[in-house]
Amino acid sequence: MKRLLLYVLTFFSISIYAQNVQEQLIEIVEAESKAAASFFNAQNRINANTGNYDLTYHKLEFTLDPNVAFISGVVTSTFTAKEPMSEITFDLDDNMTVFQVIQNGNSLSFSQNANDELVIILAQSLVTGQSGTVEITYSGNPEGSGFGAFEQTTHGTNNDPIIWTLSEPYGAKAWWPCKQDLNDKIDEIDVYITTPILNPNNNEYIAVSNGVEQSQTINGLNKTTHFKHQYPIPAYLIAIAVTNYAIYSHTVPNNGNPFEIVNYVFPQSLSTAQISTPVTVDIMNLFTNLFEEYPFASEKYGHAQFGWGGGMEHTTVSFMGSFSRSLIAHELAHQWFGNKITCGSWKDIWLNEGFATYLSDLVVEHLDGNASFTAWKQSRINSITSQPDGAVYLTDQDTTSVSRIFNGRLSYNKGAMVLHMLRKKLGDTQFYQGLQDYLSDPDHAFAYAKTEEFIPIMENASGEDLTEFFNDWIYNQGYPSYTVAWNQDDPSQIRIEISQTQSHASVDYFESPVPLRIHGTGGETMDVVLDNTFNNQVFFRPISFTIDSVEFDPDRDLISKNNTVVLSLNEQSLVNILKLYPNPAQDILYIEKADALEIQIIEVYNILGQLEGSLNFSNTINIEHLTSGLHFIRFKTNEGIFHKTMLKQ
User: Strand 629-637 and strand 599-605: pairing?
Assistant: First the structure.
């Protein structure tokens, strides 16, 4: 009774905790998907016409007033031809107006079209490997203003103006001419933001962007702030924000190479933010110890408050709608998984979002302890198993839907739990070594990676073939439901039989380690993990105490639902309870049972463990169709699961 009460209280606590976790995830997903939804359509996808060159440098000069939804800019782009080219194409919304394009002091011919392309005729054709530079002058009211790609609004009781951007996944072209694919990172950028010095309330405007602030230059009533970022970066992670920010910082010791975490917050949020953000240093230290040094330690990390719930992991400065610990952890995690290594296609979005979600779970494990971590995992599992289908890996069609890309149940929760299951399968040493190898791999560091490139890195680190694991859990759909039948007919050992059904037909069997906790009548416990690879698999384990009960997956390490643990009886125990005759038999098998025994399901298996038939209770079983030889019959009853063997002649 005491153990039952403990289980009930634990389940209640986990359920409440899990609800809070899910609410926090919804906030994160909302910000990362909301902006894209308003301008996400077929022509917003990767442009094949930008694939013939490699971008090496951008000088981005933006002029704006946070009180007005308008931007003027000069974008200077240096590129290298990947093939002979006489023209170059950039992505730019057609409502943005280009005034001129200059190359080497000469004006170039250009055109804008309804496909959101800026097509520039080069002064001279380039051969493969030859570099060129063009300077584009443009302006406009960015499409999507009021929806997130380029947002002009106000904050606080004084209605202080603010402009901020959020370009994931296809929004960069809404406010500057760019190449917004997932193949080419810009090697280096300089960002110059020119604004009025003061806002309408006579408070100073502060500009924020990627990298390190280099200077502030006053010119009359205007101020230009210069930022430099010297790491490869995709277009969607370039961002700016301007308002009357208050600024404060934390120092990360970083093993003798300190750097700053710079926080840009609304003045009205300053006191609460100063209470919430110091934990960023602890989380930074944790991730550094588990994986590697913060990838952009030579520059900075920071937070910039903006007007939505949730956050966005712009490189070196995450835009934050709030400062909850889970959001701080999630966006910081992206600096490794998402920014240093970026998913190579939107089909692989789990390499960004599943990883960041799991790293925020690791913060719970290391800072709060195992009970909280178990509750956190239960939340993920509840979400994942709320529907019977859905793969982590997206199809081409899936990538046309922003809600499918940023699907909290699959891209975030299931991606995170699959990583945890991979950790339990490989063990901590090999799991973390694999992730460290992934982050340092020269083909992917500060570049892109796809799922099929991640798998062999983990296989090399572990020495295991992970094909089945990733097929079951990433590429295919659904989850298992387990039945665990046990007995202790021999006092020195426990017999355990594991069977499974699947929620989706894409997986014939989820091959996974199955964790169990065995409880003794004297309060003893023993944990076992059984490598379950086929149905009705039987395991024997030595044991030194009398068993009271068996608990399935006590730490919530396995994606599953509707699991059952039952006490089974062997054939010797069934002599007076359940009989089959004749045995051997040819055509008909008769069942005789005790009156109190209620048989619900009868299943017949061959010697390979393959299900040959299933039926509700009947006093007879027709076995004419069965092949000659040994068969196993499984009875699901009100007293547990019973097993009999039968020889078909």
Answer: antiparallel
Answer yes or no: is pLDDT of 3 > 50.
Answer: no
61-91 pLDDT, tens digit each: 999 999 999 999 999 999 999 999 999 999 9
**C-alpha distances out from residue 136 to 123, 181, 230, 355, 493, Å:** 14, 19, 22, 37, 77
Q: What is the pLDDT of residues 233-292, one digit of tens each?
A: 999 999 999 999 999 999 999 999 999 999 999 999 999 999 999 999 999 999 999 999
Q: What is the pTM of this model?
A: 0.86
The secondary structure element, H or E, covering residue 6 is helix 2-37
- The least confident of 273-282, 330-339, 581-590 is 581-590
How distant is the alpha carbon of residue 458 from its chain centre? 17
* 3-state secondary structure at position 482: strand
Classify burial at 203, counting beta carbons within 10 Å of its beta carbon; exposed 0-12, middle 13-18, buried 19 or more: middle
Q: Which of 360, 422, 417 is nearest to 390 (CA)?
A: 417
H helices present in 277-369, as ranges: 279-290, 325-333, 350-368
Report d(CA 551, CA 545) in Å as an integer: 16
Q: What pLDDT is recorded for position 576?
A: 64
- Minimal CA–CA distance to 97: which of 110, 79, 87? 110
Pairing mode of beta strands 588-593, 547-552: unpaired
Phi/psi for 314 (5° steps) reads: -55, 140
Q: Which residue has the tokens 């990767």?
A: 46
What is the three-class DSSP state of 397? coil
Q: Within 10 A of 277 (CB to CB), how many other CB atoms are there? A: 21
Query: What tokens does 89 get?
Result: 């194409």
Each residue of 21-31: pLDDT tens digit?
566 676 677 65
Q: How far is CA 582 from CA 384, 465, 620, 645, in A?
A: 47, 46, 11, 12
- Strand runs (DSSP E) across 66-220, as ranges? 71-81, 85-91, 97-103, 106-107, 110-113, 117-126, 131-140, 150-155, 160-165, 188-196, 206-209, 212-219
Q: What is the CA radius of gyration of the chain?
A: 30
Residues facing residue 96 across a β-bridge: none
Give pairs for 111-116: CB < 8 Å, separation 24+: 115/43, 115/47, 116/43, 116/44, 116/91, 116/92, 116/173
Structure-model confidence comparison of residues 617 and 327, the more confident one: 327
- Note whether 92 and 98 are within 8 A (CB): yes
Nearest to 378 by CA among 359, 356, 361, 390: 361
CA distance 454 to 32: 23
d(CA 267, CA 159): 12
What phi and psi values does residue 527 have, to the nearest 5 degrees?
-95, 135
Is residue 551 within 8 A of residue 583, CB to CB? The reply is no
Give how far Cα 277 sits from Cα of 264, 282, 329, Å: 11, 10, 10
The token duo for 446 is: 């500060």
State pLDDT tens for residues 522-535. Answer: 999 999 999 999 99
CA dist 40 to 27, 43, 49, 411, Å? 20, 8, 19, 18
Q: What domains can you pick out in the chain, each with its CATH number?
A: 2-36+343-475 (1.10.390.10), 47-243 (2.60.40.1730), 480-567 (2.60.40.1840), 572-648 (2.60.40.3080)
